[in-house]
Amino acid sequence: MGLQEERKVAVITGASQGIGAALVDAYRKLGHAVVATSRTIALANDAGVLAVPGDIADPATADRLVSAAIERFGRIDTLVNNAGVFFAKPFTDYTPEDYATAIGVNLTGFFHLTQLAVGQMLSQGGGHIVTITTSLVDNADARVPSVLASLTKGGLQSATKSLAIEYATRGIRANAVSPGTIRTPMHAEETHHFLAGLQPVGRMGEIDDIVGAVLYLETAPFVTGEILHVDGGVSAGH
Question: 73 lies in which domain range?
Answer without folding.
Answer: 2-230
